[in-house]
Backbone:
């Protein structure tokens, strides 16, 4: 499904003429009494139908192939499944790409999303019935019926589901598309935020707002993972610092830090080991978005038109692009 969506996107954006036809189709559909959630699909299909009449044979053949693919029942159900499930991860995805996201808040957000998905997994019918009806309505726009494609008696390369596809096609789509994709999302979230994060999560107790969420022993055990970075790796020293800092914040009721970064502003030299642990906790990479964003910048800068660019100029352009919010102060530095 993702392959078809990507191919159609590339196909329509590769030509100004195709893009213009798409824009016109969107404008026309805005004037039609079509449900808002179905307008995007309708505009895309109308565009592909128009391109089927194109005089260019290659464009016509590709448009016809894509138009046939996006109107298949399996594609529409998969598209509805992705749309209905990814809406829960949208905010999480945006937050994980932020450079200011810390591990504690990320784990809390992931846990909330996982709880929602696991609740859906326990009772998938409630979500899938609405999803299935929405997919059927989209196919009605093109005079298509939501049905299972013809299957052989014994399949070796596809799912062999023991259901009567003629009497209960919804059950077939639920078992072959919805549940496997939901299980895949749950597994990916659990593997990306595995036990290695759970082991260091008690360091969250060093943040004043969470000082009572973890025991001193749990925080010390997590701190021992970084014993080589501490000024003192003695359990007694760490326990003393943690208890003293907890006592200090018990007497403060206002301006309590909520993140590891803000906690560093209130961490005095009187607690040197706690300061080091907060620095480590604040800099733990929640995701690889920052590094990937840097590579994307380099890909845009170092193209075939700039193949002879020197390293110093490339570094300068990359820094200017990555750190847009910082001013050089002098035009001659650019």
Residues:
């Amino acid at each position: 499904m993702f392959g078809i969506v990507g191919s159609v996107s590339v196909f329509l954006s590769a030509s100004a003429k195709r893009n213009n036809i798409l824009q016109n189709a969107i404008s026309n559909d805005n004037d039609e009494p079509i449900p808002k959630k179905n307008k995007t699909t309708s505009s895309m299909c109308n565009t592909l139908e128009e391109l089927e009449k194109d005089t260019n044979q290659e464009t016509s053949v590709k448009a016809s192939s894509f138009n046939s693919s996006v109107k298949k029942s399996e594609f529409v159900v998969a598209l509805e499944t992705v749309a209905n499930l990814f809406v829960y991860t949208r905010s999480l995805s945006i937050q994980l790409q932020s450079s200011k996201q810390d591990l504690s808040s990320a784990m809390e957000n992931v846990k909330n999303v996982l709880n929602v998905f696991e609740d859906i997994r326990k009772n998938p019918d409630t979500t899938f019935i609405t999803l299935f009806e929405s997919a059927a309505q989209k196919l009605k726009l093109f005079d298509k019926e939501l049905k299972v494609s013809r299957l052989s008696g014994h399949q070796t390369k596809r799912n062999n589901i023991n259901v009567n596809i003629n009497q209960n096609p919804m059950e077939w789509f639920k078992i072959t598309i919805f549940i496997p994709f939901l299980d895949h999302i749950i597994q990916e979230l659990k593997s990306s935020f595995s036990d290695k994060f759970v082991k260091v999560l008690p360091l969250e107790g060093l943040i004043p707002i969470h000082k009572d969420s973890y025991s001193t022993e749990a925080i010390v055990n997590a701190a021992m993972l970084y014993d080589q970075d501490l000024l003192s790796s003695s359990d007694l020293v760490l326990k003393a610092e943690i208890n003293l800092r907890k006592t200090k914040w018990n007497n403060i009721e206002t301006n309590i830090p909520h993140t590891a970064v803000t906690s560093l502003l209130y961490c005095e030299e009187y607690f040197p080991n706690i300061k080091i642990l907060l620095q480590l906790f604040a800099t733990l990479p929640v995701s690889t978005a920052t590094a990937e964003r840097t590579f994307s910048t380099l890909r845009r800068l170092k193209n075939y038109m700039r193949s002879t660019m020197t390293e110093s100029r490339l570094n300068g352009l990359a820094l200017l692009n990555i750190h847009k919010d910082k001013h050089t102060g002098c035009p001659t530095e650019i």
